[in-house]
Amino acid sequence: MADERNDSQGLPVRVTAYITALVKKMRYRRKVREDVRAEITAHFEDELRDCKTDEEKEQKTRRLLAEFGDLKLLAILFRRDKKRCRPLWRTVVARTFQGIGILLLCLVFYGIWFSCGRPTIRVDYIALLNQINQPDVRNENNAWPHYENAIQLYVSPSPLVEQFISYRHEGKDREEAIWLKKALRENEKLVQAWLEENQKHWDNLTADQQKVLLKCFEYDWVPFPKTDDHTYTEWQTTTFHRMVEHLLRCIKENTELTTPHPRGSLPKSAPPGFPIAELKRWLQDRTIPPNELEAVSVAVLCEAIKRFKNFPEDEFALLTDVERESIGTWIAQNEPAWRQFLAASEKAYCYRPYFYESQVRDPSPWYQSLVRERSALTLDLQHLSPLRKLTWLGIWRCRFNVSYGRTQQGLDECLAVTRAGSHWNEKATVTEQLFAQSMSRAGYSEILQIVSTHSLSAGELERLRRQLSQLYPEGYPLLNVKGERLAFLDVIQRLFTEGGPGGGHLIPDQWVKFTESLPPDVDANVRRLLMPLYTAASMAHAGRDETIAKVNEIFEFESKTAGMTPYERHICDIPTVDEMVYKTCPPSRFFVIHLLPTPYRSSEFVYWNKALYEATITILALKQWRIEKGAYPPALCELVKDGFLKALPMDPCSDKPLVYRKTGDDFILYGVSMNFTDDGGQPGMDRNRQVRKWADNGDMVFWPLSK
Question: 49, 69, 86 — which closes off a domain?
Answer without folding.
Answer: 86
